[in-house]
Amino acid sequence: MAPKRPVDPDALSGRDRKKQKLNAARTIAVQQEPTAGPSTANSMARLPGVLNAEKFVEARQYEVKAMANAIKSAHNGATHRVWQTLPRHLRRRAASHDVRRVPARLRAKAVAEMDAKPPPPKHKPKRGKNKQISKTEEYLKRQRDKTWLETHKWHAKRMKMETKWGYRIAMHTSDKSFRSSHRAAVHGAIIHDASYESVIEMSGQLKVLTAILDMCMDLQEVKPGAPRYTAGSRAYRGHLYKPGTYPYDLVALVTILWRPPVDTKGKQPAHKDEDAVRQLWIRAHPATFDAVFDALQTSATKVLQMFKSGSAVEGPVDVELVDMRGQLNIYDIMGPKSSQVLKGALQPAAIGQSQEFKQFWSALKDLQSPGGAVPDMVIGFTVNDPRLKFPPKNSKPADSDQASPMLPFPASLLAQSPLWDETKRMPPKFKKKDLDERREKNLIPGTKLQTLRQDDRVPVLLIQRSLRPSASSAERSDGLHGWTLIIPSGWSMPFWDSLTYTGTRVGGQRECQVQSFEAGVPFFPKDFPTTELYDSEMKLQAQEEEETWNRKPPAKRPNYTKLLTRSPWRPDWDAVLGKTKPDAGLLTTQRGEGEDDDMDGVQSYGSDLPPWLVSGPKTHEMLAKLIGTGDAAPSILFSEVNALRAARGIAPLTNVASEGLMQSALLPVRLDMAKRGSPQDNAMIHVMPDEEIMKWEKEKAKSVAEKSWDEADTEGEGTAKIVIPDPSTVIGFVTTGHFSLARGEFQALGCIPLSRYLELQQQRKRICSRVHNNGDSSIWVQLRNADEGHCRVAKMDLV
């Protein structure tokens, strides 16, 4: 190592050398001349009578050059610009090119240090002055093939947008994951703009409307014309079918909202007058608007013909269907703090509120969760312009140790709202700049504006919304709860700014799907494989995935032929239901002995019946009657379906055989991974032979006793060779599968044929008798992703 340079104690430091250099640069050179003698009295006599400018400048040439050189050297010697002379806590990154970031006392000097910018080029407009269009016209031109929501510009800056179902919809936030959104739905509040949903208004006599709905709604649900719904105090949620085709031709999931009867005497209004003219709204998925409208129109035609042909009907019988798309804005606010968000953002009008509403509004802020309210409860009221109270502040609930307040019971008086009247759904009278001018006149800045007589009063509807699993799985999850807020069109941004200002998270389509998945509820249309919308969505998705797969080289993509995957990009429900024969080239793999005896495949092919979904509150009761009946199950199912049709006055099925009805039935199921495994969408559900299930049950019982469970020994993961199951053992597909944040494990939702489920129940009883566990055995199946060859064990339950 070289020796260090000796330090000279008399040497100047770096700071002193910099000062010395700066002083030398600022020193003006002086010409050395002989010292002048003492002045005399006649010194003025030697001055010339005429001053020659040329000779004078020549004599002072040295001083002029010295001054110019000093100025130049001082400028070059300055090693700091203006912004560099500031203390470090006052420096800004943009101060080097933006003089507004420099203190005002130094801006003039900073401008002098800036490089001269070239003049901006003259922008020549593409259109002439006579052809210029406004921003509004430009936005309308961009909406020729799609429709923007009123909050489109807000979402476009923060979320991933896609064109779907005729709208420009926010798919998901810019975040890489949805964990924060799930946390907001469980512990906070998350809002979603669902204004793209289609709304149909139907009006007519009560008996006519109930007959129309009874013909096309789910027969397992309570009638939509029941008094609990016709009073307008609760919203109805159910499945809509084509008229008279139940259980086939499922169209969409709809929400029906009846208008409460007009209160004229201040008492509880009567809602059972069948001759009274009533009004209702039907909310549905935007892609199913035409199908829902056609189903209602067809049902109305049949009902009107039936009523007009009857002799007991007097007077004209008419039904009116109105397309209300674009007239309402709908917000879904989920989470336990959604009540406090609404309480802080909305200010009810001081006049015109019922006593029931005042009781509800006073108890809303102390509500620990919207799940404490009556499910599907409807509240109607009028609020002031939310911009007058902006910025809002969430209300704080009382101590969590205290019991939740008692909310009023749903009633027609509580549900009445001027929102039903088209003349009351008016856009804002004042623009934002008008309200800002009023704020400028306040003596104290930041104070809220006082509500004046000419200010807007906005009618709204508030509906309790819950995502709950079925009764069989209620012990697994409490579901997610929130509110649905309906406001007139034109008021979207004033309400949106107030609802999102206090930290409410915003979600898109992905967040809505995750909420349903975490609650254990099928999401429409992804988890409804018997609908036309599901087929169209899966067709587009399969096309995109296939194009992505084709772009990859063979070494970087899965070989589905070797993996024996029959349908890698979308579920093949026809093969599962036995309508098409499996490919003969995929039946050459190994198969366990005795598997054909345990689970026989469906032998009938070529059925033309479309698949139908077994769902509804009476599904568990219906399945209990079918289990253990053997060959009599198709006839029992046929009689149960006809009994439901007869209860609604619909003719029984005559052109469908009982065997065909059983063969075309699909049953929604939930799959929980036993130990390992990460199921994906389109994963295959395989049946397990009896020997493997018995081995699994014994290993599980042993692990419970020893408090250890090595799945590698149970599944044979340590073996070098992976045996791919035979494609004929596929009994269903997974529609949605990924990690569940609520349970901390992987979960999946899927569908299997009803006949296969009955066979699995027989297998469960057979296993219970062999292992002697008193009927506590679960239904075990195997899951295999489309791009994998290894199967994972999962437990199956009904949704």
Automatic annotation (TrEMBL):
**Where does the record place it?**
Nucleus
Q: Where is the composition biased (Basic residues)?
A: 120-132
- List residues of the POPLD domain: 482-573
The record's listing under Pfam families reads:
POP1_C (PF22770), POP1_N (PF06978), POPLD (PF08170)
GO BP field: tRNA 5'-leader removal
Q: Where does it sit, as one GO cellular component term? A: ribonuclease MRP complex
Q: Where is the POP1 C-terminal domain?
A: 665-704, 728-798
Disordered as annotated region, ranges: 1-43, 112-137
- Where do the Pop1 N-terminal domain residues begin and end? 130-204
* Comp. bias (Polar residues): 29-43
Question: Which keywords does this chain's UniProt record carry?
Answer: Nucleus, tRNA processing
Protein origin, superkingdom: Eukaryota
Cross-referenced PANTHER family, in alphabetical order? Answer: RIBONUCLEASES P/MRP PROTEIN SUBUNIT POP1, RIBONUCLEASES P_MRP PROTEIN SUBUNIT POP1
Instruction: Tell me the protein's name.
Output: POP1-domain-containing protein
